[in-house]
Amino acid sequence: MIEAENLTKRYGDKTAVDDLSFTVVPGRVTGFLGPNGAGKSTTMRLLLGLDRPHRGDARICGVHYGQLPAPLRVVGALLEARAVHTGRSAYNHLLCLAQTQGIGKKRVDEVVELVGLTGAARKRAGGFSLGMGQRLGIAAALLGDPSVLILDEPVNGLDPEGIVWIRTLMQRLAAEGRTVFVSSHLMNEMAVTAEHLIVIGRGRLIADCSTEEFIERSTEKMVIVRSPDVERLTGVLVGEGAKVSPDGDGTLTVTHMEAPRVGELAAAEGVVLHELTPKRGSLEAAFMELTRDSVEYGAGAGTEETR
């Protein structure tokens, strides 16, 4: 379990994390979302003891990260996959990490195979592509067979096959009862990977709920209707309080009314329907809606996130 309690971190006059509290429980993938500059990376650094909060507390399995006697056996972290000795082979990089925690060579061989680097394990890490470097970073996070995983943008640089692989891996690890906490800017990927979301903006908590609930409460439900008699159907629906937008070719987008009610009204009026499809909102749309007022760096700002 991961616990953040009233975490606050400032850099000069900028508050990167502002009285932030949340809990990440085992058994599910928890996504960590926020706009650029929201404080996600700073929060992860606070959890791992790489920065000290000005106020508040961060605990993993009930203790501070620095109090763990063999941290790699409890927490696997991926913050910067390219933070490796470029002159070492991938295998020797992992072996050096393993030796600091009393982890044997057998486990090194296992994670090399698990992440698909068997053929490149003896090559210098400095020559790795972005995707291969990402796989090496994931191997390092898994080295101690940890119960907690903290992963910052784990799909970065991976090809479509690699993205499916890491998604499946995270879900399998969570199903085994581990705590999986993952940040990403890829909304479509988070929508199919994470069961629960923690969303922050300007260092403050915006949402802590299931992915389904986040989407449902943040986006307007729509119904796609196709009929050869759109004019009469439009009149019926508008008369009952629906908002109707024509999309051409006999297709309407209906809001403010559920699909069953649309079908009932059409049937009562004898209007033929060729299509009646409820359309679920997207995580991307929900995210954009809920974080609109928390965007610090946008188009034209001329500035990029530094923390």
TrEMBL record:
The lineage of its organism: Bacteria, Bacillati, Actinomycetota, Actinomycetes, Streptosporangiales. It holds the Pfam family ABC_tran. GO terms for molecular function: ATP binding; ATP hydrolysis activity. Belongs to the ABC transporter superfamily. Residues 2-227 form the ABC transporter domain. This is ATP-binding cassette domain-containing protein. Keywords: ATP-binding, Nucleotide-binding, Transport.
